[in-house]
């Protein structure tokens, strides 16, 4: 009697993913697909998300794919986006449907034109209903499943009646999403004072807080008009070099501390973070700029009482200046 061959367990099919940037807010996500190769040129795709059909761009197609499979492990992707301070969820965002055609791109332009008309209509209804909200933008999804309206308001708004009236007009699902001033800049931002497109619109996804301390440390002007971005808040670029400035500042001695130099004891009167220079004053009144590596902090030496008092007063004046400028920024936002 012949023995029946053992039933070998089927190997689980390896799922392949592509990274896609999609939506009006330029969200990032992984999408499952069955393609053998990923084009190495700028490629538009149609994907299915929990919102419906959407048009997007493939990300990382130059060197991140092999045989259609995204090469980086989940840990590597997570580490990269955490270090880049970009808001990203490694979970699957949806499925790849197909590569976009010329007709799809044409349809996208048509929907963008329609969305402008939808904004005008929504603003008209908001004005008629006397609602405390500002309609910023609208996004008509590619599949037509819904229209997303982005609005600003000082507090919570009951927009249920507004949604009903808009839904009756367009016979589709309506979604209202409240945003802040930085999100408004992400949607409507143009060129900044540096001549480049707004960072939040071009590549920044996670908008972390920026404070006046960063501007002060980088010796930037404290004039709110010059360090405020399109959104009216402090420019995001002040964060870019803050970590470097902070690390370099830790290497410098504190003001009025006593140092041992080749010419004897000296007191610190000023420091330069980027050049890592320390301006010292000797007992005879001579001043000199020295590299921080050439100095040794004198043990047991400390500033005199009156010098400490002068330093504290100077720091208080600087803090008052920062607080005044922060108040100016708050008043601008209001």
Q: What proportion of the residues is helical, as a percent range?
A: 25-40%
What is the percentage of strand-forming residues? 25-35%
State the major sheet.
Answer: 5 strands, mixed, barrel
Taken from the alpha-carbon principal axes, the silhouette is flat
Structural class: alpha+beta
Q: Tally of extended strands? A: 15
Biggest sheet strand order reads 1-2-7-3-4
Query: What's the Cα radius of gyration?
Result: 29 Å
Q: Regions with pLDDT < 50 over 5+ consecutive residues?
A: 298-334
For the terminal residues, how far apart are their CA atoms? 89 Å
Number of H/I helices: 9
Order of helices and strands: EEEEEEHEHEEHEHHHHHEEEEEH
**Mean pLDDT metric:** 80
Please tell me about this protein's structure.
By secondary structure, this protein is of the alpha+beta class. It has helices at 74-83, 102-128, 160-170, 181-188, 199-202, 212-217, 224-227, 242-250, 305-333, and strands at residues 16-22, 27-33, 44-49, 52-59, 65-66, 69-70, 92-99, 134-140, 146-152, 173-178, 258-261, 264-272, 277-282, 287-291, 296-297. Among the domains are: 16-100, no CATH class; 106-179, GMP Synthetase, Chain A, domain 3, CATH 3.30.300; 251-303, SH3 type barrels, CATH 2.30.30.140.
């Amino acid at each position: 009697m012949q023995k029946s061959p053992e039933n070998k367990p089927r190997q689980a099919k390896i799922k392949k993913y592509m990274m896609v940037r999609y939506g009006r807010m330029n969200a990032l996500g992984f999408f499952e697909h069955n393609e053998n190769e990923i084009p190495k040129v700028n490629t538009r795709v149609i994907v299915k998300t929990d919102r419906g059909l959407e048009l997007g761009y493939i990300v990382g197609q130059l060197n991140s794919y092999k045989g259609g499979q995204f090469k980086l492990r989940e840990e590597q992707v997570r580490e990269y986006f955490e270090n880049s301070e970009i808001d990203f969820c490694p979970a699957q965002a949806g499925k790849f449907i197909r590569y976009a055609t010329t007709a799809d791109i044409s349809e996208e332009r048509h929907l963008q034109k329609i969305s402008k008309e939808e904004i005008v209509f929504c603003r008209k209804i908001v004005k008629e209903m006397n609602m405390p909200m500002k309609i910023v933008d609208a996004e008509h999804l590619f599949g037509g499943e819904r229209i997303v309206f982005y609005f600003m308001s000082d507090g919570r708004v009951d927009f249920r009646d507004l949604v009903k009236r808009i839904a009756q007009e367009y016979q589709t699902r309506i979604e209202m999403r409240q945003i802040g001033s930085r999100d408004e800049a992400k949607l409507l931002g143009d060129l900044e004072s540096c001549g480049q497109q707004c960072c939040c619109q071009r590549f920044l996804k996670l908008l972390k807080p920026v404070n006046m301390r960063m501007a002060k440390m980088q010796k930037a002007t404290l004039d709110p008009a010059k360090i405020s971005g399109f959104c009216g808040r402090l420019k995001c670029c002040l964060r870019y070099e803050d970590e470097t400035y902070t690390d370099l500042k830790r290497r410098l001695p504190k003001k009025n501390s006593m140092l041992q130099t080749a010419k004897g004891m000296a007191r610190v009167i000023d420091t330069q973070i980027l050049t890592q220079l320390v301006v010292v004053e000797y007992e005879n009144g001579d001043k000199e700029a020295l590299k921080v590596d050439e100095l040794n902090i004198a043990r047991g030496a400390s500033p005199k009482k009156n010098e400490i008092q002068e330093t504290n007063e100077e720091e208080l004046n600087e803090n008052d200046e920062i607080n005044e400028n922060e108040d100016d920024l708050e008043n601008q936002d209001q």
